[in-house]
Amino acid sequence: MNKSQKLLEEIPKAIYFDDKDRFFILDQTKLPTQEIIEEQTNIEQVYDSIYQLKTRGAPAIGIAGAYGLVISLKKYVDLDLESFVKQVLKNASYLNSSRPTAVNLSWALDKLSKLATDFPKDKSVKELYSTLRDEAVAIHTSDIFTCRQIGINGANLIKEGDGVLTLCNAGALATGGIGTALAPMYVAWSKGIRFKAYSSETRPLLQGARITCWELNKFGIDTTMIADSVSSYLMKLGRVSMIVVGADRVANNGDTANKIGTLSLAVNAKFYGVPFYIACPYSTIDIKSKSGADIVVEERNSEELIYIKGQQIAPKDIKAFNPAFDVTDNSLISGFITEKGIIRPPYNFSK
Questions:
Q1: How far apart are CA 105 and CA 100, in angstroms?
Q2: Given this model, what pLDDT does residue 261 score?
Q3: pLDDT of the residue at 7
Q4: Which range marks the domain in which residue 30 is found?
Q5: Which of 125, 210, 215, 280 maximizes the CB count within 10 A of its CB?
Q6: Can you state the angle between helices 58-72 and 43-51, rounded to 10 degrees?
């Protein structure tokens, strides 16, 4: 293992699954002040961990959903095969309802559900359980490889002295590997390319401030945090060479759902002539959604806006509009950095 590979292996991990079928997550709601690894022991806990954003990011919640489904089935291995398959489908449907926007969750759960429904009727429940467990591990392993490839493909876009701006967290803690949007930064930095990273704080839950800054700082990348409202001024000052963010769902025409604030970044980038990239695994592309109009955008409760870390900042009875995501038009996107390479417009992923 060379020096750059060794560096990449040291990046923090969001999800752990051991040889005793125990599933653990890093509780990201506690970052950056506490690093707590929490075992997930039942389906309700996994659901809450995904909904409460203890584990988050489209690839990571897909992996968490798969592992969560597996551990939820341990207590049913003594059922007959037909009853067990029904339980698989029931549990998968329940977990899938935790976050509706990210396609990776439904993709992973659908994959395991299909394995269950197509499983040979002359096989045992324990054999099916082992098949589902192995598939969950395979989804995780595949994501590790995918993230590395996204990093390799995107690193070529980063030049010495560049300023790279990102929003929210699409790093290692949003995936099973080294991240999507942060992966090119990690690979470029590990190769000795020195640049400046800018992390937008990402209100209301501050994933950029709490998580991306923590990740990049831990890795040693030269990182500056900015308030969300500073990004356009930073571009005007000429300090941003490119923007790279992640994605929770990409429609067939390239319209992209990502953390709220992404659309504003893309509009400003277009105005100032700054390249705007989406970094995501190919599995995030949902060809069933023809355009962004087909993407369901999750709206979260008003308390996330009214309170910051338990501190009230607005009247309790104020009306609040709190979408977790927005949809960026394909015309604003310079390219998609995927494990298959960089995809440029025009976008039609079903071809």
A1: 8
A2: 98
A3: 63
A4: 3-147
A5: 280
A6: 170
Q: Provide the residue count of the chain.
A: 351
Q: State the amino acid at position 230 in one-letter form.
A: V
Beta pairing partners, 242: 164
* Number of other residues whose CB lies within 10 A of the CB of residue 165: 25
Residue 317 among the catalytic residues: no
Cα-based distances in Å from 66 to 70, 120, 140, 152, 204: 6, 21, 9, 27, 28
Please say whether the beta carbons of 136 and 66 come within 8 A.
Answer: yes
What's the pLDDT score for residue 2? 60
Same domain, 54 and 95: yes
Please tell me which residue in 27, 143, 162, 248 is annotated as part of the active site: 248
Last residue of a domain, one of 147, 176, 208: 147
**DSSP-assigned states of every residue in 95-134:** HHTT-SS-HHHHHHHHHHHHHHHTS-TTS-HHHHHHHHHH
CATH code of the domain covering residue 225: 3.40.50.10470
Based on DSSP, count helices (H) and strands (E) in the chain, helices before strands: 12, 16
Same domain, 316 and 214: yes
Task: For residues 300 and 343, give the distance between their C-alpha atoms in angstroms, rounded to a whole number.
Answer: 32
Spans of the chain, pLDDT less than 50: none
- Are 31 and 100 members of one domain? yes
DSSP states along 185-205? HHHHHHTT---EEEEE--TTT
Contact (Cβ atoms closer than 8 angstroms) between residue 178 and residue 151: yes
User: Residue 187 half-sphere exposure, CB side, CA atoms within 13 Å?
Assistant: 20
Residue 64, Cα to own-chain centre: how many angstroms?
Answer: 11
Q: How many domains does the chain have?
A: 2
What is Dmax (Cα atoms) for the chain? 67
Distance of CA 166 to the CA centre of its chain: 13
Q: What 3-state class would DSSP assign to 165?
A: strand
Token pair of 264, please? 């504003």
Quick check: pTM over 0.85?
yes
State in Å, rounded, how far the first CA of the chain is from the last one. 38
What pairing do the DSSP bridges indicate for beta strands 196-200 and 223-226? parallel
